[in-house]
Amino acid sequence: MKALNDAINRLHATRQAKAAGHLAKQPELFDTGSDTPLSLAELATTSALAADTPLASSSAGVEIDAANAKRERSKLLPVRHVERDFFLCDMFDYAIKDDSASMEAPIFTLATKPDLAVWNWASKDSSRSVEVYPSVKGRATQFDKDVLIFVVSQMTEALNCGRQDAKNRTVRFVVYDYLVSTNKPTGGSQYGRLEAAFDRLAGTRIKTDIKTGDQREKQNFGIIDSWTIIEKSPDDERMIAVEVTLSKWLFNAVQAHEVLTIHRDYFRLRKPLERRLYELARKHCGQQALWMIGLELLREKCGAHSHIRAFRSQVLEIINADTLPEYRMTYAREKDQVMFYTKITKKLMAALASGKSQFST
Fold first, then answer.
1. Per-residue pLDDT at 180 exceeds 70
2. pLDDT tens across 92-107, in order?
3. Does any domain span residue 78?
4. Is residue 161 part of a domain?
5. Residue 233 CA: distances (Å) to CA of 182, 236, 244, 346
């Protein structure tokens, strides 16, 4: 055994001596005085020399150098699969957006039970109108709108980043991401509720002439055209990823950036009426500090079915709770009007000091 080990050691010593001889003859390949570690190519060359393998010819070396130079011109891989036939909701840092068209008109019901009534609404100047026809499963609810807010927010941010896939009406997203983004529980029941929301969104038909994306046409369409489960959990029937195709009406609004940023605490509001009142405040206050509206007109804009007395009681309850993000409300009983005003004190004081607004209690 000792004799065998001695023979192996002598063989290694001979090969190392040959490798050292080759390296001494080609000092231009490696700078032995440098502390820089050898690259993979240099290690391969060293291994070849150590194994007494002859180096390639000089002409072959030139061709290899040229090929390496071409490869080094691009530090990154080429962009593959530039065009997809769907938009992937994978934005992580984005502002919450709501489309201004549905913020203006009461498309979504405030009811928590199936609403099977046909709803008609027209603006005060009769320039815009909406007719909403529910399916047998009921009209889409204010909470169902969370799906659209999530998609619109993602798509708007992607458009701002110049992503080409954001120009597709079909949108794909992971259900868990949607639930987390809209402040919902992630338990199994939420997946069934989301499927029911998809059915109501696809089944609710709208006929309107409200302009979106500089296009004013009288159209009849579903809030979403269709929805598809792309992937299900292997353990149960819960959906993991879904595709939703937006209506052209909503898609045109997003592509034209007809959206407004809303506060993330919108998803913390418990009551449908609270959410609708916040939408109206955000839409009509805008850069203003104050906005006043008659209670009857406010009831119409909210799409409330309740009697005016019951609606007044509901509004007063929300005023006392002070739950709306960014805005507060006050009720002027003698005028039967509701005033929305900003929670930003400096902005409010500046508006009052200008004399253009009158504050009522």
1. yes
2. 667 889 988 889 888 9
3. no
4. yes
5. 21, 6, 19, 51
Write the secondary structure of 43-73 as one string of H (helix), E (strand) and C (coil). Answer: HHHHHHHHCCCCCCCHHHHHHHHHHHHHHHC
Q: Could you please report the per-residue DSSP string of 321-344?
A: HT--SSEEEEEETTTTEEEEEES-
Residue type, 155: M
What totals of helices (H) and strands (E) does the chain contain, helices first? Answer: 12, 13
Is residue 114 classed as helix, strand or coil in its secondary structure?
coil
- Angstrom distance (rounded) from CA 157 to CA 94: 6
* Structure tokens, 1: 């055994």
* Strands of the sheet with 119-122, listed across from one edge: 119-122, 129-133, 205-208, 219-222
Give the contacts of 209 (CB within 8 A, at least 6 positions apart).
Answer: 128, 129, 216, 217, 218, 219
Helix axes 272-285, 295-302, angle to 10 degrees: 110
Residue that has been written with the tokens 């929301």 in this structure: 197
Tokens of 159: 């458009």
Mark whether 356 and 286 lie in a shared domain.
yes
Q: Hey, what amino acid is at 199?
A: D
Confidence of residue 26 (pLDDT cuts 50, 70, 90): very low
Instruction: Please give the structure tokens belonging to residue 83.
Output: 């065009």
Dihedral pair phi/psi, residue 338, rounded to 5°: -115, 135
How far lies 211's CA from each of 62, 63, 102, 166, 338, in Å?
65, 63, 11, 21, 28
Q: For the residues of 195-235, what is the DSSP string, one character each?
A: HHHHHHHHH-EEEE---BTTB---EEEESEEEEEEEEE-SS
Q: ∠ CA(160), CA(166), CA(167), 5° rounding?
A: 110
Alpha carbons within 13 angstroms on the beta-carbon side of residue 44 total 5
- pTM (2 d.p.): 0.73
Final residue of a domain: which of 72, 103, 119? 72
- Name the domain count of the chain: 3
Domain that holds residue 323: 273-361
Would strands 259-261 and 97-99 be described as parallel, antiparallel, or unpaired?
A: antiparallel
Identify the band that residue 214 occupies on the pLDDT scale cut at 50, 70 and 90: low
How far apart are alpha carbons 206 and 246 in whole angstroms? 13
Rg of the chain taking only CA atoms, in angstroms:
33
